[in-house]
Specification:
Radius of gyration: 38 Å
Strand order of the largest sheet: 4-3-2-1-5
Helix content: 55-70%
Length: about 300
């Protein structure tokens, strides 16, 4: 406390003592209490009122400024062609940093020692860190995702038995949109610790389809039909060259597999189209698709 404030307190104390002496002679206790309260309230308003008012103004303007800086940051990032997945993270960082500066400034205006505020913030940070250690793990994972780029906004990702298109990458979690238009929210720590498949990170993708045909089927005929379909389909790429081959024999069928490359965005369209066309052509060519079956042979007891 500075010398001016000490002097003010001494003057108010002397005035209160004078009022107390006068009123005590009159034995007017209620008047004594009112005079004391009024003088003390007046002292508080004159001494701390301007500081409190200034602190409130700075707090309100600071919170407004943090929102404004967050919005401006996103606009600047978009104009600078910065990776879209970083927008939300940088916006949150700027907003939180601005709020911390505002809190420190308000404390300084109120006369709180800077060392005390830093120590208090450090202690609060340590306590919060212990209480929200799982959230901090998500934050660390979010930063890792943003800088290593295992996936980006717009990618189609499969993880934990779920799949969807990445909508937004936040510090704590990542939001996906499923093919049936549901919102899927997964904590970032799960995305960095579990198996994750990004199916749209490359421009092209290979389609593998396996068909089980009867053991009495003509292998060359089956392969010829599959090759004809792959080489004539408009969504099928011819480089790398499509292929059809015998993959394995089972107890009741021959597994013949086809492999063809396509653009990533055409993968599912080609899949559905090829499945339909293969069935139609097999029916035309009298190629029988096999299925699990049990052959029962009845033996004549007379012949053993």
């Amino acid at each position: 406390m500075d010398l001016v404030a000490i002097g003010s307190m001494i003057r108010y104390t002397e005035r209160i003592q004078g009022i107390t002496l006068i009123l005590s002679k009159r034995k007017d206790v209620s008047a004594l209490d009112n005079a004391f309260n009024n003088e003390w309230l007046l002292y508080l308003l004159q001494t701390y009122g301007p500081k409190i008012l200034a602190a409130l103004v700075v707090l309100i303007l600071g919170l407004w400024l943090s929102k404004l800086l967050g919005s401006l940051t996103v606009k600047v990032l978009k104009k600078g062609n910065i990776e879209p997945s970083l927008h939300a993270f940088i916006r949150s960082f700027v907003s939180i940093s601005t709020k911390i500066v505002v809190i420190v400034t308000v404390g300084s205006i109120l006369g709180l020692p800077m060392g005390t505020m830093i120590a208090a913030l450090g202690a609060a940070g340590a306590a919060i860190a212990l209480a929200v250690k799982d959230s901090l793990a998500n934050v660390a994972s979010g930063i890792l995702i943003l800088f290593t780029h295992p996936f980006r906004v717009g990618d189609y990702v499969e993880v934990e038995g779920s799949a969807g298109t990445v909508q937004e990458i936040q510090l704590l979690y990542t939001t996906f949109l499923t093919v049936d238009n549901r919102k899927l929210v997964i904590p970032n720590s799960h995305l960095t610790s579990d198996k994750l498949v990004n199916t749209t990170c490359e421009a092209t993708r290979r389609l593998d389809l396996a068909f089980l045909v009867g053991l009495d089927s003509d292998i060359d005929q089956v392969k010829s039909v599959l090759m004809e379909l792959m080489t004539s389909h408009p969504l099928a790429l011819q480089d790398p060259e499509p292929s059809a081959y015998v993959y394995e024999y089972t107890s009741s069928a021959i597994n013949i597999t086809m492999r063809v490359w396509t653009k990533t965005e055409d993968y599912w369209d080609l899949t559905y189209s090829m499945l339909e066309q293969v069935k139609h052509r097999f029916d035309e060519e009298k190629i029988r698709l096999s299925h699990d079956q049990l052959d029962v042979h009845v033996m004549d007891s007379k012949h053993g």
